[in-house]
Amino acid sequence: MSEPVIQALDRLFDLAASDTGQARRAANFLLAWWNAQDNGGFDLADLFGVDHAVAADMAVVFVYLGGHHGAIYPDQLGYEDKIVALVHQWRLHETAD
Asked: Taking every annotated instance into account, which residue ranges of this chain make up the domain DUF7673 (predicted)?
């Protein structure tokens, strides 16, 4: 994995761990990658609600995933703790409501 992909993922995970509208959108993107069936898909219209830099980070990740031979998930790239934390932050509270 190249340094630009690592940096983009780090920024997206950091943003998703915060509590803003952009954070929710970044979390939706990352969680859809982890398991869209359980966590919901990513609405492309969410791109309209993020800064250009955030959209660019999403694009870097998307291009990386599309160019990777076979499926690859966050836990395989060392992000298991972060993706599990996002599930707890953004999804588990929704099922409790």
From this structure: 7-91
